[in-house]
Design a protein that fits this description.
8-stranded mixed sheet, 20 helices, ATP binding, binds adenosine-5'-diphosphate, Chaperone protein HtpG, cytoplasm, Rossmann fold, Heat Shock Protein 90, unfolded protein binding, 22 strands, binds magnesium ion, alpha+beta, ATP-binding
Length: 629
Amino acid sequence: MATKQFKAESKRLLDLMINSIYTNKEIFLRELISNASDAIDKSYYRSLVDENVSFNKDDFYIRITSNKEDRTLTITDTGIGMTKDELENNLGTIAKSGSLAFKNENEIKDGVDIIGQFGVGFYSAFMVSDDVVVKSRSINSDKAYKWESKGIEGYDIEECEKPEVGTEIILKIKADTEDESYDKYLEEHSLKELIKKYSDFIKYPIKMLVKKSKKKEGTDKEGKEPEYEDYFEDETLNSMVPIWRKNKNELKQEDYDKFYMDKHFGWEKPLKTIHSSVEGAVSYTTLLFIPAKAPYDFYTKEFKKGLELYSNGVLIMEKCEDLLPDYFAFVQGLVDSADFSLNISRELLQHDRQLKFIAKKIKEKIKNELLLMIKKDREKYVEFYNNFGKQLKYGVYSDFGANKDVLQDLLMFYSSTEKRLVTLDEYVSRMKEDQKYIYYAAGETIDKIEKLPQTELVKDKEYEILYFTDDVDEFAIKMLMKYKEKEFKSVSSNDLGFEADEKESKKETEENKELFDFMKETLKDKVKEVRASQRLKSHPVCLANDGELSIEMEKILKTMPNNPNIKADKILEINTNHPMFVAIKNAFAEDKDKVKMYSNLLYNEALLIEGLPIEDPVKFANDVCKLIK
Ligand code: ADP
Ligand code: MG
């Protein structure tokens, strides 16, 4: 009997599999098991609709058998089986198999990346085997047939012996090579692992005869060492019902915690578990976790976000990035939807739409759960925020603020009046009647900000100030611009919105114009202006800030590459009610050099307060000593 040729498309896919550069060869087992499960589904369906076919739960199973001597791995199922024609059509032609309806070369090229992300079907067997035998008897036939292929050359079909309905796939496992181990596909423990990893939630039992050891009877007599003997016992390797398919009411938090840790989603119990099922145009179940702590690599490039993607209990992707926005990258968990097929290529676009739809819903779900947490379990939220708040703020800042509406209600900052983290909503609801802005102060730590001279006036007016201690804070807020129609305003900014105080300081500045001009001349480009301060009450001096770029932002940008010369516009503000101002005024009348020294000293003081380096510390130290007389 002449060997039959594969159809052209099949040949191409087969070629891809045989010469697979793809490293994740282990998924072949998942593919074959899921085909077996599909086949059992079909016979189960038949038993429901055809009264001649009986249904006995115990008759439906998948069996894995490995034989190291022959190097064969056999996957047996009690499914619907295939007739001769079906063997030929389903396994000989890709178009029929529905696996990969590759239409053109381009898609095949894309296909290389797609392998491993989504189902690749029966042909994946050729990644680990160069001789594949399929023995099958259809539920509709008395005869059984054997299909065999040694690869690209084609396949043979002949009648064979097989009394039971179902399919048996026998893979002759390749020999180990220098770069690739195939032996493991014959090892009991690695097969167990693979099944746990990819097929744990297949509905039907996946059985394997597993080697065990027991005491030999009669050898356990007193004074004698017991002898042991090996024996084999059938074991079901999969747990069959996935936790997320169970009813919420049946589950305790402990069950979720155990699952979370078994899956290595995190090393301690999750902070929050979100389990929900949605029925609708797209039906899906999600089980999401918010970790209690950020993984050690969370804020690095090494961290990879993503959720596990299941199709009816079969894992099709370990980390599906598209399901999570970056700002929720910390979320762990999975999505299971019967609307995903194992094979993306079937209707690539449609999948995409479903994926996007689910991703959108997941995003909303996480947001709402977090909002609820703020209301119902604030302590927990604060714990969450201390770990992942930075990520939310990056989220506000990135993509030109595209996600600010999603995120703004989740933000928290330390409050000067509440002495704890507060939301923007809380801030705004507490604002005084005459208060125009949401005030903030940026600095390294809460303690340092607390002491900033620039906060004096705003505090004096008993307005609340938000303290920004993360690098990203001010950048994020600039992106936000407003919250509930209230603009953000730095306590260091040029215009604080207090008209009376502003008028007063303008007047003072005017009155001392000559002195301030002289000081500005002394300091040259270091400052844009020297003027009387409206914001200082007890402190002598501070820097204020003109323009979009703040002094804090300058500091942060300077630590990044490519920004060495970036500079915020600084204004030196002098407290004209401070005793030192009298001394300066006197000096201005008598000794201009002294005013020059004072100007430099005050400027350097202001820099120190900001946590900025002073240009000439030695000169500064010497000048201070000159004052000690
Ligand atoms: P898919 O599973 O996406 O249809 P595959 O390449 O995995 O694509 O399988 C091709 C076809 O071969 C299946 O659609 C099915 O008709 C048939 N098939 C594969 N394995 C079995 C099996 N164990 N029992 C019955 N039919 C099978
Ligand atoms: Mg398949």
